[in-house]
């Protein structure tokens, strides 16, 4: 298991974001380190109020970069003035806070809790549909904790989803180590049926499919995309972590797909859906990755152009087969990570730039910083609406928003029909556990 160290500066919003990061890392099997020098990854959640604060943040980032193997900088200063860290020569990944867990988890599958109970967190319902996976990736330690996939029936999961909706969920997040292999243990690929039936539940809500490895969904991708096309409740979004653009590296990683299968999944969704989001992950600096392999990954990112990209610098997990491989030098990994991260920002920025001037139907999912709210459009792209109280916009509302600008990894929008509240205010008492 990996270790982390996190430091938080600034307002209560930053502290809340750090709690979310820690919760995701703990769910992924990570544990806190005694200090930054003992951590596999250090996370600095920054504040930027006055010039003195900025100097303090730069100084602390420089110290942490010397004390730990891998530094992530997030928070207000990272997003508003990320170039200052680069100009200061600080070796760090600059990430939006909700990208931090994926980066730190090193490409491993999420760890679903043993009881796999649904959880209602605000208006977001978390629905684990199965536990375990069918993969045997050489770098992943999660498999030792979760074992092979164990899939409850479609009926059981639909009832859990219905309970979440009745409890007030406006967004249901379908989760698992690998949602694409749901039902493999029973000999029946049932993910399309499950999603279809969840969308048939009465109520106004949205459904987001969680991580599905390309090897898992390739055999059902044509059936799956039809479910997406036919159900407006289902966000047109898939998270399919490719991890490398090189078949040789994928073989060494023991991934269950090759690049052509990943491309086939993407092309099928491109052909069938007009407006959708591809999220994927890349591991940079795997021990057997050559410079040519890295260039293949860069070429794949450039050609496929995902709207959400997690770039992870490889680190060894004790007990995994990859831990016994002779690793690449830290400088090589850092240079490749920097190059891919820069390309990532260009690709993601272009995606959000293309949204400016367009109007989207969104769901207000949660509160943001200050008096802002975070919304998601039909393709799960994030749009921030500011001055929410004055506009009469609340979490759980559905409304139309015109995108007026962007900050590379999310957009800003102005409501065109302020505060159109959701239907059905009366709800039954919640049966799922509350976060």
From TrEMBL:
The alphabetical list of record keywords is: 4Fe-4S, Iron, Iron-sulfur, Metal-binding, S-adenosyl-L-methionine, Transferase, tRNA processing
The free-text note explaining how the cofactor binds reads: Binds 1 or 2 [4Fe-4S] cluster. One cluster is coordinated with 3 cysteines and an exchangeable S-adenosyl-L-methionine.
By its UniProt entry, which SMART domains does this protein fall under? Elp3
Q: What is its EC class?
A: transferase
Question: EC number(s) for this protein?
Answer: 2.8.4.5
Listed transmembrane segments: none
> Which reaction is the catalytic activity of this chain?
N(6)-L-threonylcarbamoyladenosine(37) in tRNA + (sulfur carrier)-SH + AH2 + 2 S-adenosyl-L-methionine = 2-methylsulfanyl-N(6)-L-threonylcarbamoyladenosine(37) in tRNA + (sulfur carrier)-H + 5'-deoxyadenosine + L-methionine + A + S-adenosyl-L-homocysteine + 2 H(+)
Where are the compositionally biased (Basic and acidic residues) regions? 417-429
Q: Which residue numbers delimit the TRAM domain?
A: 353-417
Which Gene3D superfamilies does this entry report, sorted A to Z?
Methylthiotransferase, N-terminal domain, tm_1862 like domain
Q: Which GO molecular function terms does the record list?
A: 4 iron, 4 sulfur cluster binding; metal ion binding; tRNA (N(6)-L-threonylcarbamoyladenosine(37)-C(2))-methylthiotransferase activity
Q: Which named protein is this?
A: tRNA-t(6)A37 methylthiotransferase
Species in which this protein is naturally found: Halorubrum trueperi
